[in-house]
Amino acid sequence: MSTQLQDEVGRTADAATDQVDPQAISLPADLQQQLQSTLDSLQDDRAVSRLWNKDATFWTNNEETKWLGWLDIVDRELANLAEYESFASEVRREGFSKVVLLGMGGSSLGPEVLGEIIGSAKGAPRLHILDSTDPAQIRALEAAIEIKNTLFIVSSKSGSTLEPNIFKDYFFARVREALGDKAGDRFVAVTDPGSAMEKAARNENFRRIFFGDPAIGGRYSVLSAFGLTPAAAIGIDLQHLLALTQMMIRACGADVPPADNPGVLLGTAFAVAARAGRDKVTIIPSPRLADFGAWAEQLIAESTGKNGKALIPVDDEPLGTPEAYGADRIFVHLTLSGDRDLAQDSSIEALENAGHPVVRIEVKSTEHLGQEFYRWEIATAIAGALIGINPFDQPDVEASKVKTRELTNAYEKSGTLPPEKPVFAAEAIQIYTDEKNAEALRIAGAGDDLLSWVKAHLGRTGAGDYVALLAYIQRDGQHIEALREMRIAIRDARRIATCVGFGPRFLHSTGQAYKGGPNTGVFLQITTAHPDALAIPGYCADFGIVEAAQARGDMGVLVERDRRVMRVHFADGNVDGGLKQLSGAIARALH
Fold first, then answer.
1. Sheet bearing 564-570, strands edge to edge
2. What is the DSSP letter of 117?
3. Measured between alpha carbons, how far is 172 from 157 in angstroms, rounded to an integer?
């Protein structure tokens, strides 16, 4: 090769490297030594090439090979760009004002991040996500759209998942009321080939059907049709997004040593930290990237939370002082170029100076999101191998689905859910748990008021534990803020990690780690009555009944897993009033 050609190739390589989001990892000396030792072992073990060769023995040799279609999906989707571009042109031509994605878990969280962070192109419709069976959530969405000018994307890999199906049934009936036989023209399906959803879409004359890859699990699917279809609908430049993603793919390639490989390096840091007891992956994004954590939460928790092991992701927990944290954290600070928060930067620096592990990632532009999706997918696959689990299955997610089905089937037959008796009731507040938990709480002082039960429950936390608030209520700004105040109070008083999940959304995400991971969670479930039923066409059960069954099914599995769990129920349906009471009880219990 001539010197001139070598220089040109070098400049091209440097330019590509410059386009990769930079990453810096700062660890205490002991963890840094373990990181280097582990990277050396990965190099000796040919770990990166085994990953790319889809060698199942790199993990547990338990069918991992069947789930690695995400590794090369970007190249395959670039070959499909014409179909996405045609669809995007169709959406613009039709003049849709809103796009509503009906899905759960991997089918909804990735699109949500794309819609919130990159956003709609000028003149393109705005994306709304429905991933909740809460009647108030559904009513709020319906009030925010105009049915006649809305395109619905029904997203479900298997086509048999409960929530997308009943969402579709509800809104298809609404559209048919407005448009008659042309209702199918307002619907698009994203599903795996041969699924029940494909059959339903053809029977109901959907506008289009986009197919996913059966070799890609839902949480790894954002760079496939499940993420790209809604992205195309809102006018995101997919060619640019995927071309930038390719640069990260090359940086994580089979020929790149572990120490220089962004995804492998991040995953190794996670695993090394977890081995040292720092298993709470705390995601701190700059303001414009705030929504990224919801996607990363699912990827990490559902992939690693099983067989009594887990990386527990902590998202949307406001930053505290170093004194607010125990020795179980690793912090990931994601910043968007031009979107720095100086107070946030200062807090992260203080955490690093106090000896906490800190990862810094700079996202060069919102269009670089694809790079971060890929980096974190590689990292999760590597971390899974290092902690000794299969990062591509989700054995405990199905357990909650089974219990939910049992309860909804019982309702369809009898018109009522099986009876349950509260362990405490006063005015509009009721508390439920199983006999074993109830006995432990009574021994700890639970008695004849809400405060005593809350105090006894939070008193069960210890070093290395985390508290998860599992709220089966409408996910809106007011409720998010109320739960945020509760989690700050708990964290600062107990120096433990806190998580918030809105049900049933989290069941397809962090719920796997809560049930399959280590028994270090203390769970406070929050539910409410729904005085005004919201019917589901073709079902006896309404949305409120489905949500109640999901909450009870979730709690049933937590109990079976011997988790510390208690449910607070707002019997009068006054969520705001109930949250105020609960927040007050938590504040008093911690002092």
1. 424-426, 429-432, 564-570, 521-528, 466-471, 497-502
2. I
3. 19
First-to-final CA distance of the chain? 73
Residue 554 is encoded by which pair of tokens?
A: 């979730």
**pLDDT at residue 4 is higher than 80:** no
* pTM score: 0.95
Buried b or exposed e, range 295-306, using 16+ CB within 10 angstroms: bbbbbbbbbbbb
CB 575 within 8 A of CB 561: no
Q: Which two tokens mark 294?
A: 């919801």
pLDDT at 445: 98
Instruction: Give residue-wise pLDDT tens across range 412-468.
Output: 899 999 999 999 999 899 999 999 999 999 999 999 999 999 999 999 999 999 999
Is it the case that residue 7 has pLDDT exceeding 60?
no
Q: Determine the length of the chain.
A: 591
CA 528 centroid distance within chain: 23
What long-range pairs does 205-214 form, CB within 8 A, spacing at least 24? Answer: 206/154, 207/90, 207/151, 208/87, 210/83, 210/87, 212/157, 213/69, 213/70, 213/73, 213/76, 214/69, 214/157
The DSSP-derived string for 258-322 is GGG-HHHHHHHHHHHHHHTT--EEEEEE-GGGTTHHHHHHHHHHHHH-BTTB--EEEESPPP--G
Q: Please say whether the beta carbons of 109 and 482 come within 8 A.
A: no
Q: Which of 296, 263, 352 is nearest to 39 (CA)?
A: 263
Determine the pLDDT at residue 400: 83
